[in-house]
Amino acid sequence: MSITTEKDFLQELNKEAETIRLSYVTKLGDRIIADIYKNAEQISKNVILNDTNKKNWTLKLDNYLTSKIFGYPFMLLVLGIILWITISGANLPSDMLATALFSLQEILSRGFLDLGAPAWLHGILVFGVFHSVAWVVSVMLPPMAIFFPLFTLLEDLGYLPRVAFNLDNLFKKAKTCGKQSLTMCMGFGCNAAGVVACRIIDSPRERLIAVLTNNFVPCNGRFPILIAIGTIFGVGALTGQLQALAVAGIITGVILIGVFVTFAVSWILSRSILKGEASSMVLELPPYRRPKIASVVYRSIIDRTIFVLKRAVSVAAPAGAIIWIVANTYIGEISILNHLAGWLNPFAQAIGMDGYILLAFILGLPANEIVFPILIMSYISSGTMIELESLAELRLLFIDHGWTWLTAVNVMLFTLLHWPCGTTLLTTHKETGSKKWTLAAFIIPTTVAFTVCFILTQTVRLLGLG
Amino acid sequence: MNKGHKMILREHFGIKAKSDQYVIALAGNPNVGKSTVFNALTGLRQHTGNWPGKTVDNAQGSFSFKDTDFLMIDLPGTYSILTNTVEEEIARDFICFAVPDVTVVVLDATSLERNLNIALQVMEITSKVIVCVNLLDEAKKNKITLNLPGLEKELGVPVVGTSARQGIGLDKLKEMLYLAVKEQVIFRPRQLHYSPEVEEAIAQILPKIEQLGLSDYLHPRWLALRLLDNDEMLLRKVSAYLTANSDDDIYREVSMAL
Amino acid sequence: MTVDFNAIPLSQLSIGSSCRIGEIGLNGLLRRRIQDLGITPGTTVECLRRGPSGDPTAYVVRGTTIALRKEDAYQINVFPI
Predict the structure, then answer these.
(1) E-assigned strands of B81-143?
(2) pLDDT tens digits, one per residue of B99-148
(3) Within a 10 A sphere around the Cβ of A208, how many other Cβ atoms?
(4) Per-domain residue ranges for chain A?
(5) Contact A286 C30 (CB under 8 A)
(6) Residue to test with chain A: of B148, B198, B212, most A Cβ within 10 A
(7) What ipTM was estimated for this complex?
(8) Cis peptide leading into C56, omega within 30 of 0?
(9) C29 touches chain B (CB under 8 A)
């Protein structure tokens, strides 16, 4: 058959099929599905010898985990506990890694000096590249190595669909889908992963909203900033486990703000540029299953931790070099970094921060993990402090640079709300296939962050509280 | 279908199997331990990415058994393959047009009835199906007992019971795959019973479909069912995929069809 | 088989009670989705529980648990058992 006659034949065939379809009262498609299930029913009846699968664990657990009284408090509790374990568990290994890596830095440094390497090379490689990488590894690796297995554990247990079940009603009010909560959960680990996870949402409109708002969930790269500032300015007086608990409380609060902003922005998007009605949601609640710990640890370390760490390091290394150059190249008496910070300062002051902080956020676009090291590096090169080993010293450094509680709150809010990292933006572009929506994914959080910090700062100043 | 044509079709799906590798598709519902089976069989010899042109995860992995090489493709987890979503379309098209040597359908032993739906759908497209009843450990915990030999008789294709997380039954699955590709297994998939009105409609359109001359590639009865279900796109894809002679042809034809 | 004229929307089925699925009034993708999960005419479905804020509702269908929103369940007619 030639191509053209074949096309005609297919058309004819389709027409005939349609005539047959229309000659039946019931939809043949529906009948076919129902008939396949009838076969499945028959087969099951013949091969299932006994099935007492009624009062099982899943039902009993769900009586609590999705109940009116315990449903929401339990979710908060789970979130709080995960954060607490992550924060308190990461403390010690973080310190040990930092001590080890920074003493290695000294050895490296001495090596460079002994070899008579030029100062700029020494600076770029040791103070730039190595310092940034060391910071990223020591700050990020331990919390990730704890957070991701815990998250994977929840996933394997089958708890995550319950989160969607519990929260769907709220999302419905924002005219979006309860499955958005699952993509948010993923975002805690990494927003780029969260954006990819939005594939599970069927409606393109609701999927896009989930993509655009995923950034309001702080990822692992931003947790360290929140934790450090929360610890320094929030609970400085407390010690030990009590401190970790209080920090977990503060972080949970910050996350709730993020969740609130997610709902608010979703609500607005559903009534403006992404207007539409909530579509449907069909969600399976699979039975709870006892996870295999070994495979949880293995998968979360291999698939998630190493993946995210690799990415962070590959960004931190070149970024460290560039920042060192910017901080140590002088135009006139002042370094480029200081020029930039000075230029940004008026804008930054309006939102309760300073030029260095805003610059750190901007230079941190490749990855949020490097915002803090950039900030510290630029403070140090413009100030007097050289050594920085404990949070107490960090506190002094910040206070030396004029930080108040308002600065701390603004930095935390800005961390939570500002533009997504480069990887997340690239991923957004890949997933949406659109420059327009990628731009929106940048502009929406940026606007929200500036607006929130501006209003807060001006209000506090007006009331004379700051 | 000659071997060259088959390879072209597979490449269209981003599958680059070596000439001595058997291609195994892995299908099933979400949450049935499909990836556990996949990971257990392929280990670290995996490659993950996206399906060509789609934002849907694609994982392929290789393994050997008795000096025979297999390339396993993890299809998206779906409840059906009647192509209502991109995932279902990928799973269906792969089974239809990439012609895997064997398709393994993973079922959850604790909800057999719902899971059989997709197995029966796959068995209508291809007869080379092995059914893997997974999560037998969970079924045992819930005091569900299954008659697996009975299931095999009902379905007419090999049935293997596994508890993939414990690594139980996977050797049996590999052995069965080996026997299947060496053509030492007889597949006689159950012919589904449809209600009289559907059977009547099939009878009306079947002669016309048989004129298409595609019986060597696809079951005319299945094509009839899809047409009666208003799956207009499928026919165009069928002709695009099966008459094209080169990769370029396929791309052109398929994109025209879409 | 007795003809039962007392069809109600699935969304009005009370918790703990069961029904047989009658006509499915949904359209498009959702209609298919629901049927693919085994909610086909004649199937027995049990209403299991509602979400903490009253919606969605979880139903037991062919040994699995499926949650549906009120609006969607409203368009499925059922016969209480």
Answers:
(1) 102-108, 129-134
(2) 899 999 999 999 999 999 999 999 999 999 999 999 999 898 888 899 99
(3) 23
(4) 3-49, 72-462
(5) no
(6) B198
(7) 0.93
(8) yes
(9) yes
